[in-house]
Amino acid sequence: MNNKKSGALIYLLIAIAIFGIIGYLLISSNSTVSEKKYSDIVAYFDNYQVTEYTLDLGTGELEMKVADGAETETIKYKVPNVSVFINDIDINEYRKEYNALNPDKPLSQDFIPIKDTTMFWTVFPVIVLVVGMVLIFVMMMRQAGGGGKIANFGKANIKAQSSSGKKTTFIDVAGADEEKAEMEEIVDFLKNPKKYSKIGARIPKGVLLLGPPGTGKTLLAKAVAGEAGVPFFSISGSDFVEMYVGVGASRVRDLFETAKKQAPSIVFIDEIDAVGRHRGAGLGGGHDEREQTLNQLLVEMDGFEINDTVIVIAATNRRDILDPALLRPGRFDRQVVVGYPDIKGREEILKVHTRNKPLGPDVDLNVIAKTTQGFTGADLENLLNEAALLAARNNRNAIIEADIEEATLKVIAGPEKKSHIITERDRRITAVHEAGHAVAAYNLETQEKVHQVTVIQRGMAAGLTVTRPENDDQHVSRTYMLEKIIMLLGGRVAEEIVLDDICTGASNDIERATKTARDMVTKYGFSKKIGTVVYGGDNDEVFLGRDYGHTKNFSDKVAAEIDEEVKSIIDNAYAECTKLLTENREKLDLVTKYLVEFEKIDDDEFEKLMTGGITDADIDAMIEENRKKSERKLDVTVDGEVDVDENEKADAPEENTEE
Questions:
Q1: Which residues participate in catalysis according to the annotation?
Q2: Per-residue pLDDT tens digits for 44-61
């Protein structure tokens, strides 16, 4: 820290010196400049008022005494061009005429010859700047490490775990009990090595954390750092890669040398796919700098020299592009998959992230866990943070259930766009579309329960139908996928039935339905016509470190049959959806009417609409009651003052409040 402060002070002093010299030169060059104009100076000579002057023929500096009646004024002026000035005043003629007019006091004139310093003063500022930049560069090189030696460019950018400050422990890791147990075993091995060595067990040389982004891979590594009690060094995979040849391999050697000096120790490499990509026929061939770095990493982990004192923990979400030599036992002995948390795991994660957040009595973490299927730990943390921001925005002291609901929808689809002006036509089209999704989902046995339906714009969506799964089912049936397609097509079918026309709002639904149908045919073997065969399984990802493009593994005839089968599934689902919504046309119109008037339906209201708890007459009565309340709400007196009925305050609808 002191070295950084001293270095910054030196840079500051050099900068002040440079600007000081430049400022001095500028000030000194303008110090003799008078406020007089050039025409005024020439006029003094024309009027024979100049009694004495000295002219520097090199710099053009003129100092003269001007007689103004009985007084004499000394004037300093810098002549722009000496030659032009001499011609303008005609020095010889002026001296003759002045002496003729003043024989008692002849003219006193003096000329300072040209000195050969003009070039020096022109170049001097440039010299000062160049020297200053060189000094700064030298100081930076010295601070970079080891007196400016070029070899220090190959030093690894290692971050050692600080002994001070807040540490992450296994208590902070939730929703991944099995994964945490795997990492706790390594920590226990480091703390109690005799317990394992007496039965011949050796410590794992490497642990590879796999899983989607946001599931807690880096958090697990931080917990190991907080619990291990041994030196912990962390580095990113991208820190090894450099444009200069050999630098990456040098940094790998430096990393392991540093770790070995403080063994036993742990090295954590985040995003190892940046350096551990598959070697082969990719761009750069066998001479790629990344491959040299990977080769050095392979040698350090399990090469000719035995290394049992440094444990390597790495994290990646792209196992498919890692080199096979990196994944074999002896390098990464243990691979820990950190997947999406289940309901119990999500509830545990929510408990961790609500430690410092006050919750209202209506907040049930188990309910939140059920509504956030597919959320990672990072998503849940973001959800609770958004809920806390909403509570603070509304001046509440605790997070209530409405904040959680709004935050969930905000994370999924974006914030509500209440200020957008929507025409009655667009509102009705959106209401019909969302009602089609909701009614279809309600009447399909395998589909999730409808949680909320809204026609308020969110993000790119004009409306939204949110369903809530009851359980985290690991197996998806053919019936579920077929009914999922029917539910997705519910919006388009409802438009055709109610409006006798179709709109562009169903484009995303059709895209998702088509993808689901194609996966059924080509990935899961659900088609009797195509058979139990996977088509195009190797073509999901293109990685230039291994291959240059897609290779179709089926014929054009099979491709045509796949397209026909996909279209058949979509057409059959469309027909089923049309039949279902036609049979439930009354419920479809009822939900549409409710959405047009009130914009939003929660799960309880939707259940009542579908079971007869809310009828068409009830909706008309609610509309009429709201109209009367809005008319009675403000009682405008004769003098212009507004009186609000106290009873109306209590009964006023809260349509515009943020839930």
A1: 434
A2: 888 888 888 888 887 778
